[in-house]
Amino acid sequence: MLTRFTFRILMFMMALSLWGGTSTWAQDFAYVANTLSDDVTVIDLTTNTVVTTISVGTVPVDVAVSPDGSQIAVLNAVSGSISLIDFASNTVTNTLT
Questions:
Q1: Euclidean distance between CA atoms 7 and 26, whole angstroms
Q2: How far apart are CA 9 and CA 33, in angstroms?
Q3: Tens digits of per-residue pLDDT, 64-97?
């Protein structure tokens, strides 16, 4: 039987495939999910420095970039949610549950 959480994971994985896979970069920045600290670290790839750290849901496990590069989606495994991060401001603009 398919649980609600499993269904959400499957739907997110399907959405990732539409967004172009599990890319963790947007333009010159890398977005790294930190599962132990429940946040995402943004790294400037041109200078190899940490730009900021963004709090997201519980146990972020996957990151995807929208096709136009304007949003970053983060799958939070334990909280069963998806955090949407605005690329321009590096802030969470929505949390889908």
A1: 27
A2: 16
A3: 888 888 999 999 989 989 999 999 999 999 999 8
